[in-house]
Amino acid sequence: MLSERRLQVLRAIVQDYVGTEEPVGSKALTERHNLGVSPATVRNDMAVLEDEGFIAQPHTSAGRIPTDKGYRLFVDKLAGVKPMSAPERRAIQNFLDGAVDLDDVVARTVRLLAQLTRQVAVVQYPSLTRSTVRHVELLSLAPARVMLVLITDTGRVEQRMVDCPAPFGEASLADLRARLNSRVAGRRFTDVPLLVEDLPEAFDHEDRGTVSTVLSTLLETLVEENEERLMIGGTANLTRFGHDFPLTIRPVLEALEEQVVLLKLLGEAGDSGMTVRIGHENAYEGLNSTSVVSVGYGSGGEAVAKLGVVGPTRMDYPGTMGAVRAVARYVGQILAES
To answer: CA–CA separation, 303 vs 275, rounded Å?
Structure first.
């Protein structure tokens, strides 16, 4: 275990390195921070921190920089989440409140996160496996053609055309709409197949084929839309950090193109807590020089998806964590009110 003073020295090194981009020496630390000890004592503390693997000496400088292990200790023990100021919170709310639908919410969230953190922003669409049905609408377009509209609790809207095997009257359509919503409204998508499997039997024999066709389309929609979707923005921000990547940013850019990689980075959507993965904690080799800060968002107390940012390990962790958490909270409120 490190002493409180050495933890203070580590905190100072991380803060200075993030702020200046320059390796930090003992003289600079004692000048910039009120550590209450001599430069010789600070040098000794830095030697211990280096032996323990929390800081390292780049070959070009006498100063030290944090390692992945050092950043991890900083995030776990030393970094509080920096709260957003009242003007920042108002700006977030005003920007997101103008969204007209779910796609717009996600697009605005990506742009906002990238601007606030100056990192790469990644937002996962709400997963249908964790969503519930708000309403199913059935509209007659022709005697044997129906439009099925599925609305989720997260504001997602899916439309499908259904070609029926026989004409289906308005009265029968209204009956099907009412029966269907009484069974599935407010229920999880994963529960829907069992809830509707015997519904055709409630209708006259001549209408059962059409009811079965409508239900098949509904269930196909649930399956089709089960795949996870992401939106990414702010990739150009990486060019500001070229020297933070050992050789080239190309492996990072290639990793950001892989949706499966990004989904794994964000973590399980059902986990609403803040996650910070630093450097080599990212399983994908191309992202070993980056850190990922992510958190769940959703309506009510349950997360339906994740959002976060990807940037170099030399990032402002308290500020980034604060921005990610604040944006997630507002997105959750918008979904709850939509």
So the answer is: 13
Dist. CA 204–CA 213, nearest whole Å:
15
Strands 145-152, 290-297: pairing is unpaired
The structure tokens 């996870």 sit at 228
Task: Return d(Cα 27, Cα 33) in angstroms, integer.
Answer: 10
> CA dist 255 to 249, 258, 260, 286, Å?
10, 5, 9, 6
Give residue-wise pLDDT tens across range 31-68.
888 878 888 888 898 899 999 999 898 876 678 899 99
- Are 303 and 296 spatial neighbours (Cβ–Cβ below 8 Å)? yes
What is the rounded distance in angstroms from the CA atom of residue 291 to the CA atom of residue 316?
11
Task: Please state whether the predicted TM-score (pTM) of the whole model is above 0.90.
Answer: no
Q: How far apart are CA 161 and CA 140, in angstroms?
A: 10
Rounded to whole angstroms, the Cα distance separating 39 from 43 reads: 6
Checking if the pLDDT of 269 tops 60, the result is: no
Q: How far apart are CA 115 and CA 86, in angstroms?
A: 17
pLDDT in tens, 78-134: 777 788 888 888 888 888 887 878 888 889 999 999 999 999 999 988 866 667 888
